[in-house]
Design brief:
The chain has about 90 residues and is α+β, with helices and mostly antiparallel strands. About 35% of the residues lie in helices and about 20% in strands.
């Protein structure tokens, strides 16, 4: 839920949050989205192919990607997406 709120906050600055569901079936992801009331898009990566291509070594992994596709920021591990300092740091990356 805090990532969903961060998505709303960052959208005001033109940011887009996209999640990735690794190793899960679409029905499982749909049920999770419904229960967690997630509004941002979730891409399905059932076989982990996309995660491997992005060099994901652990979950969760977060990326900030520039409009040109270049990765600007990567962190492995959980983040407190409701932290105002984190949101300001992300805004400063644009």
């Amino acid at each position: 839920p805090s990532l969903d709120r961060a998505a709303e906050t960052l959208a005001a600055d033109g940011g887009i949050v996209v999640g990735s569901a690794v190793g899960e079936e679409s029905a499982t992801v749909a049920e999770y989205r419904r229960r967690a009331e997630i509004d941002f898009p979730l891409a399905l990566d059932p076989d982990g192919e996309a995660s491997a291509a992005w060099g994901v070594r652990g979950l969760p992994t977060s990326f900030i990607v520039r409009p040109n596709g270049k990765i600007q920021y990567r962190i492995v591990g959980g983040l407190d997406w409701s932290d105002p300092e984190l949101l300001e740091e992300l805004r400063a990356l644009r």
